[in-house]
Amino acid sequence: MIEIRPQKTIQAEITVPGSKSYTHRTFIAAALSDGPCTVSNALRSEDTLLTLDALKAFGVLVEDRDGQFIINGTSGSLTAAEEIYLANSGTSMRLLTAIAALAKGRSILTGTERMKERPIRDLLEALTQAGVEAKSINGNGCPPVEITGGDVKGGKVQIRCAVSSQYLSGLLLMAPCTKKGMEIQVTEGPVSKPYIDLTTDIMQRFAISLERKGYEHFTVPGNQLYRSGSFTVEGDASNAGYFWAAAAVTGGTVKVKGINGDSRQGDVGLTQCFEQMGCRIIREADGITLIGGKLRGIETDMGNMPDVVPTLAVVAAFAEGTTLIRNVAHLKAKECDRLTAVATELSKMGADIKATEDSLIIQGGKILHGAEIETYNDHRMAMCMAVAGLKVPGVRITNEMCVEKSFPDFWEVFANLYTQ
What we know:
Layout: E1 2-3, E2 11-15, H1 20-31, E3 36-40, H2 46-57, E4 61-65, E5 68-72, E6 78-79, E7 84-85, H3 90-99, E8 103-110, H4 121-129, E9 133-136, E10 145-149, E11 155-160, H5 166-174, E12 182-188, H6 194-205, E13 211-213, E14 217-220, E15 230-232, H7 237-250, E16 253-257, H8 270-277, E17 280-284, E18 287-291, E19 299-301, H9 309-316, E20 321-326, H10 338-348, E21 352-355, E22 360-364, E23 371-373, H11 379-389, E24 395-397, H12 410-414, H13 416-419
Parallel strand pairs: 2-16, 3-15, 6-8, 7-8, 11-12, 19-20, 23-24
Antiparallel strand pairs: 1-24, 3-5, 4-5, 8-10, 9-10, 12-14, 13-14, 16-18, 17-18, 20-22, 21-22
């Protein structure tokens, strides 16, 4: 357990590690490429290393050299793995379930008890349409999954993405390696649209051609090769959000380096929410600075930025007036039910917050007090509630090392808020 020490004024420059979302996708694209790839500034966390270990199990040779990863591409030819354990990494499970279709033979992907409750049926049904044998072993539409892959035909596929955009990202990443290519029609969703842009960005960086009509229709020609090369992962916008939030709640100033306003990461949009709440944002080529101001409540649709909803909710608890965070039902299928978890833990501190099926309603400006915060083994719960502790004495966070899932040195970086 860690107790957060309040800080009256913050003046800091922070550097966050590489983007988790970009790291997963870059590792996969490199593994499917036509030669050795050098990946720099990759996030080294529990989730991303699970993806890397899974790719090794599929027969990909990987070297860790001088802080860089050298991934030797297989030209899309993988070997099946008897069983791959992916803990509670939803990104790994969903992307690699699709990639397993390219591996010759039978692969089983499994994870924690929570992972065995997280839905994946829509992706399995789409893979079946593409000629892949894909099933939920327990028959409940959740992991563990069994994929029998090899030479995938591809063709026309329909998919629902109301729960996760990662189903579509997985299909897109595997599609160039199929015989016929794939024509993908999205029948519902997708939620979290910026992650689709991020996926197609990675594919195009690796010289994959595709056509799209918005977020509803994608055509990816088959028999393509991801082209090898050197790739640098940009900083993680989701993790940057905790430090912008730290400036917001304390009225301080924090610059997060390595991220700029042109990023395709949707979570950079959190800065726009903070602007609406009364903060000042300075966007420069080498980073984004937030200067705190008098906070006021806002109404916002966060369907495309689900990972930063807990962060926004914490800041909203310190804002005058009502904040309504809409269109976030898919947060119930994350590492924990984040809508309920955020409401429960902020309520312990005296916040007036209500979770509905698809929203959070926060009546801000209440006097808050310290509490022992349960993290539900969810990295984002630990990090967002640390922000509250900068303003409120007595905030104690249990199982604080769950941050290793996405930001292993979070507490060391967080300490810079006190020393600069």
